[in-house]
Design goal:
alpha+beta, Trna Endonuclease, Chain: A, domain 1
Amino acid sequence: MTAAETGKTGERLAVRHLRRSGYRILAKNWRAYRHEIDVIAREKSTGTVVFVEVKTRTPGSFGRPADAVDANKRRFLRLAAESWLLSNGGIEQPARFDVIEVLLPEKSVSHIVNAF
């Protein structure tokens, strides 16, 4: 499996997890400038907009998937999220950043709410 296929598989499993957990998917692979947000969802119970970074790892990968969401990645995600909020109803909306870790081949999904 290529890195791109691994990433797409992880994103598909993350979206399935979010839907089953009561989220409505607003966008996938949304781009602002040269930055991308993997999944944008709305938590149905609270109305919160959730910007989700999906990190997928296969056997032999080093460290936890969430460890790859470093300070630089968080900064880019914040900039992209601000752009999305400004173009979709304003920055007054409640919002947060989550990370979903996916481990393959076991298809284990771990959802880190309010990760940063």
